[in-house]
Amino acid sequence: MKRNLLVRLPGGKDRTYPILIEPGILRRLPTILRERWSGRSLFVISDTNVNRLYGDSLTRSLKRIGYDAVLVEVPAGEASKSIDVYYGLVTALLEKKIRRGSIVVALGGGVVGDLAGFAAASVLRGVTLVQIPTSLLAQVDSSVGGKVGIDHPLGKNLIGAFHQPSLVVIDPTVLKTLPAAEFRNGIAEIVKIAAALDPKFFAFLERRAGEFDPANRSFMTSVIAMAVGLKAAVVARDEKETGLRKSLNLGHTLGHAIEAATGYRLRHGEAVAIGMVLEGRIAAITGLLSMRDYVRLERLRLAVGLPTRQPDRLHMKKGLSS
Fold this sequence. Notes:
By secondary structure, the protein is an alpha/beta fold. The protein is built from 11 helices and 9 strands. Helix 5 (136-142) runs parallel beside helix 8, helix 6 (180-197) packs across helix 8 (217-237) and helix 6 (180-197) runs parallel beside helix 10 (268-285).
């Protein structure tokens, strides 16, 4: 059931990196890292939730095979993508003697990937980054493509960089620990990728919408690989989001506004799902999208359990939630 992909960026061999997708691969991660980077210090960055499940055990495994491995924990949740938490993380890395030859391992969901990735991009002017996404949303979207950063009170992801990982390792079995709502978050991004990039993939999801289940390893491995493959191809053609890659922002323009309006109480995937439907409605009204395809979009949202409309009342709130 394993799927191996490559992101091939312009600029030479060192700009190409593998994406390894395989159930159970997290158990082999120490060996995989040693085969690629023996003798280099590792800094595993995780949040309070993921650390309890995987962080401590991974760090111990790395130390058992001779790695100088340090675990750094950050609070869970979107509020960690702040300048204060970022500064604290960089301070911890410097105090623990990170060097330019060190490797930052981002172990967690999208927040950890963005935050740790930005730290890796900026500390000592950039160190090697490995992404180990543990949420479905991070596996199919944020771990691939090099967009890393933090939030600002004026908006989400306004401070950041493009810093490509040197390796992405995706283990679909970790999805079993996700709450149902977080699992649906990732489905929203899968639907977004299909709607934006591939009619055949979208039709595939329509036929098999009922098979989304963390326990369905074969299906999830295939779907993750298809979604990641599509995104990787876009990133290879438009790394810095100057053209084609903007299509992956489907649902995000209004989705980010809805997130901010609810003080980030609404999950990212839920907001993107609502944003896609609202943007689809605008496109249908203006003739950019057929009414048939708009209806298909709404039906697929319902089939996979995603919201299709914004909350009845949006409690407006300035800036990020505390």
